[in-house]
Design brief:
Elements: E1 20-22, H1 23-27, H2 31-43, E2 46-50, H3 55-69, H4 73-77, E3 89-91, E4 108-113, H5 114-119, H6 130-161, H7 168-171, E5 182-188, E6 202-205, E7 211-216, E8 221-223, E9 232-233, E10 241-245, H8 247-252, E11 262-264, E12 276-283, E13 290-292, H9 299-306, E14 314-318, H10 319-330, H11 338-343
Parallel strand pairs: 1-2
Antiparallel strand pairs: 2-10, 3-4, 4-5, 5-12, 6-11, 7-10, 7-12, 8-9, 8-11, 13-14
Helix pairs in contact: 3-6
Keywords: Iron, Metal-binding, Oxidoreductase
GO molecular function, one term: metal ion binding
Domain Fe2OG dioxygenase: 179-285
Amino acid sequence: MPGSTLPPFPNDVRTHPLLIIDYELIKAGDVEEVNRLWEAATTIGFWYLKNHGADQEVSEMFDMGAETMALPFEELMTFEQGDNGRSFGYKKAGANAIDAAGTLDSVEFLNVSKDDALAYPHVIHRTYPSTVNARMENTIAPFSRKGLEVTYVVLNILNDKLGLPKGTLESLHDMGEHSGSETRCIRNPPVQIKEAAKIPALGAHTDFGSLSFLHNRLGGLQVLPPGHEEWSYIRPIPGHAVCNIGDALSLFSGGVLQSNIHRVVAPPGVQAEYERWSLVFFTRPGNSKVLRALVESSHIIADAVKKRPDKNFETGSTSAEWFARRIKNQRINNRLGPETWARSRGTEHTPTVV
């Protein structure tokens, strides 16, 4: 259960250090802290965030997840996300491939659309299990608002650092437009046999959207930093979120902002004997927004694109199309072969990584 006493993260595994960014300081415009955020966003694309003020919302979201995953499987499956490229809803373990060979994932999760959470009881995209509805207004909507608040603070800082006109990035994530933004509560069962610990629960990937606001209580998240050949754990720190840049911001910025490859494996050491719960708020651009480098709006972005002639920053894809393609082609029911997996990929530069 999410609230149980858990063993500490071991000290004998390889970890990658992340900068710890103070949310209250960047919100207040502290120059030194803003520069540290920029460093993190343009190097590895990951950082810890402290003083985010969401601890209560996070705790209640974990409770909601536990209540929902305790429902009968048959009931949960009536809210399954399906194979047509829609993310919102329940995903059973084994519904997605994690690699080109078609290896199945081991996690179950529940995605709740930001649009549905904030419009409740009006339905925008779909309906959800009773345990979700019971907490939509007092748990899920507050967590969604907190995720959006953090996102807009970060977006406005990155916007200015990129030399974009005021409000450019925020306008691409306009609250008035429907989007793929969502909360996700994830459960990964304990490892039953030692060999299973070697199989990723979620395969190597970059995130689909703009910014991820992640909360872990056990290890398992691993990153492959640029220039590295070995995976490293990200050590969970109580009260600290892990934030990372996704494909959309990387594309908008002409690759200045880093959408870095990562995966989820079994927690290290004795932690592997426990259920692993995690919680994310994913912010994604408005559905109609085209994912392309904003070269006309920033000389910084234009110069970055010129330095990368090998990279295509003109996807020709809207945010909704990019998201649906990635979701649909991960689904094992849609698999025709390795080419299906290839169609699910985003900005990852190391498709052969295992």
